[in-house]
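assembly run, all chains below
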Amino acid sequence: MRMPSHAATDTVQVQTGISILNGYAPPSGAYDEVFDGVGNTRQHWSTVTDKLAQIGADAFRQRAAQVRRIVQENGVTYNAHGDTEGSHRQWVVDPLPMIVSYDEWSAIERGMGQRVRLLNSVLADIYGMQKLLRGGQLPASLVHGNPHFLRPCHGLQPLGGVFVHLYAADLARAPDGSWRVLSDRIEVPSGIGYALENRFITQQALPDVFRAAGPVRLRPFFQRMLESFETLVQRRTEQPCIVLLSPGPNFESYFEQAFFARNLGYPLVEGADLTTRDNRVYLKTVAGLKQVDVIMRNVSSLGCDPLELDSTSTLGVSGLVQAARAGNVAVANSLGAGVMESPAMPAFLGGLCKQMLGEDLSVPSAQTWWCGRGEDLDYVRRNLSQLVVKPVFRNRSGEAMFGPLLDRNSLEQLDARIAASPNSWCAQEMLSSATVPALEEHGLAQPRNFLMRVFMVATKNGYEMMPGALTRVAPKSGGCCSVSMAEGGTSKDTWMIAPPDMPLRDHPLPHTGPVRIRRSTAELTSRDADNLFWMGRYMERADSMTRLLRVLISEVQDCPDATVPPNLTPFLNIAFALKPGSGEADMMDLDEAETKLDELLYEPDAAAGLVSHILAMHGTAAAVKERLSLDAVGIINQLARQITDEQDAAQGRNHGLRLNNIGMLLAGIAGTMAENMTRAMDWRFLDLGRRIERAHNIAELLLHVFSAPAPHSDAMLANLLICADSRYTYASRYLTNLKAEAVVDLLLTDASNPRSIAFQTQAIAAHVANLPVAAIEEPQTRRRRLALFIASEVDLADVRELLTPDSEGQVPMLTRLMARVSDRLLALSEQLASHYFAHSDNKRILSSRSF
Amino acid sequence: MANYRVHHKTIYDYENEVQTSHLAVHLEPLNTWGQILHNFRLDIRPVPRDLTRRVDYFGNATQIFNLSEPHRHLEVDAQSLVTVHPRNVIAPQNTFSCAQLRSIMENVAGDDLLQAAEFLLPSPRVPLLAAARDFAAPVMQDERPALDAALALCAKIHSDFKFKRGVTDAHSPIEHLLRHKQGVCQDFAHFAISCLRCFGIPAAYMSGYIRTSPPPGRPRLIGADASHAWVSIMIPQYGWVEIDPTNNCLVNEDHIAVAKGRDYGDVSLIRGSVLGGGKQTIKVAVTVEPMTSLA
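ok done. output:
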């Protein structure tokens, strides 16, 4: 049991059998989610609080520790804003859920539905007649001065007037128990993937609580999203192409995009994977160009089209706006919808709602003042120290400023900035928001402020809200100000609990007709094929390096002499990337060799070292995450973490343990993939990479061993068999009788040995024969002929003939063949790359100028 | 009344093959009050498969096209036949004062002025610089008639800055002009716009041409062998009035307008994104030929 380490700060003594909620005391005057004003448990929480009492605080904290492990293994990360250098933060999940009653949830859903309908109407006006601007209901400068108002998209009215396909809002609860909208997420509403991940994790950690409380499932919401995107397809086609446009792995929320791709079954693409011609958008796949019908974008509107929008963006696709105008592609959310995200907009939404929908906002916004209005300006300047002040256009002069946190000097400076340019500033009331119990690392649950992000999707029958949410909890108590994952807060699963007698909304299954049987899922993009191929190559490279180092390190450690024994030379030559037959390694003393081997095993900077191979594999895997099984991703993450963690611990290094461990994890990855991936195109590219690399490595082994000046000793042959992972196969056939022709047969020509070159080259030829051929190509392509040629040459090899010694006792026929096979494999790899992976991305902007 | 034949040819040569390129051009002269476009012809080599003409947010014609076959050479050849009418004579002294104009714009109502109000806001290439405000303050007095003040601003820009190529480039921010005191028409226009907007006068960026050969006895205008840029301001009594800070004059029959926007970014003559190609060289030739008749 873990005891509180700081008795002074953690005064709560933890005892077994006590609920994690024991002694939980929300601040007086605030609204608390669990307990009402007189300390009674709210009704929709009672099942959960009872369960928590049964479980006890200690057991609960153990489960929380489990959650941290699960999150780590699933690789849930969050890349904080602007942090493109890849420092992905770990997502932090508090297994104590947030709970919302059905009645309350329904009221919020109505309110949010009304709000999105309003947003759509306002957007239709902004990108159309602009009557609201002419009439003064919406200040023109909030639109015309907004960098997210995209003039090239003016006149682009989406189907059915739906600009906002997916919508998210951050809600806070005021002290009187009513909800307020703090901000609208319209441009790229993120968080759904995290909400689902939180659900999976919480359900795993608290299966008993989950069963007892029975929150409404989230899955059907995904089905809604799928249907929703399908309604956007305009083309009459059997197989519409819907893609997720992502800014790439270095950006915020990539985890979520990969998660979407996996769960919705849409290809995850980057701008460079798309191209436009004839006012249509196409996806570059290994089978050629495929027309795209719908783009679900995770790239900000401005970045989507360098031709007509931000010309410096490399994330989009040139010509997208024109294709959208021509009606050949639908983009969700609509390009330019982000204009409504200005934090000043809520100051006008109430009035607009009355005018346009004839209703009051049923869930109001937090009170907002736009300093461009005289009376608002006065109010804001008088009350600066009690308000949250924000620039009206998000990405201009930074983030929100919290009045209470500013000293006198900063307040005066802020006041001067507002006075100088009132139109650029707005302010929001500071809510003392409600509290929810949050788990602390030590001790019992504490009251913390939170925000709840809810999600809506447009369906044929109007907007539907996800029956759950993403709740984010402030890091410190009294942290009234900011709740942001980037600042170290935690997140919670959010349960909507319906009373048993309440009929849930009828969700008929969409496809009631017979299902069309499909054998392949998402299209394989050229970039994904490239990454899979290289992932296969790096996996195999790491694997063969592991075995090589295992042999070398144990031999060097056991060696009685001070110099390198000759039977190790060929293996050292491979490890140190020296020429076959080179005598350089012989000149080394043993210490030097050992240091160099150490580097290969531990140093991430050693170019051909084991760590760099594994990290390269990890990198390529991360880029195709959504195509791999969760188990495979889990093991890959674990491996990458372990090899870098151990890096620092220079003391107590145990080479053998490290290598065994790496070897086992690599085998685990290969096994999981072999068992889980369907034998579709993605598998072919992965396996091709692996087979080409393995054939190449064995050819190199044979080349080096049989180029050695010394006669190949038994020890050398034994090590060769270990490096090629065929020692036991050999022993089962020949016992300990080591003969060169038997070894070469097993490693080169025996197609039944999955470690032989023949096995690889036959598999390669079969894969290549099954890869798509472009319409303009001859069916028997160069790459097919080359693969067949390599396979036949290996197949036809006569081992005894190859081992015929020349006058100097060398076996030139074998070494020449191995050198040839090795070169041809690399040539094949290059041909595959130039045909299937070409996606050059050196985009440049043309410009002309006036004088 | 003046008739012109305008020929504007741009040639791009690339070191390597370009895989695909997407272009959007603003080369078709405006057909508007005071200027009649009789004929416009756009030839592109290689010939694009798709070419779309549309009218953009500001009312300019723009052509968008895509070249998806590999190419090393690209020609964009625009020819137009235009008649420019003399502008109404406006006495600069008879316009609203700067202060009056500002107060009218602060309480805009009605379609035209709402559109004009867009040209008061800072735009991507024209921030409202304190330095611009300071520069213009001596000539933009509140009580001074707005057009008189704007022309005085043109004169001040003309005398304080030197026209020189190669100091700034197409993407230079206007601070460069201030630092080096040298630049070209694009820089002068952007800077004048920043000054005018700082004082509440709606100002637009005009892109176009001026006549190449001067009428007998008059000096050759600056920028005649290339495309040109100037400024249009809104004087509510009269509408948009064009002024040219580079040549320090009111625009009359010598300017042929192609497009109007908030700044150069809205009306780039040729804008494109190119995949591949390596190094490129650009050749531009502009001739503006006055014609006695339109035959």
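Chain B has seven helices and 14 strands.

The mean pLDDT of chain B is 91.

not gonna interpret more than that til we talk
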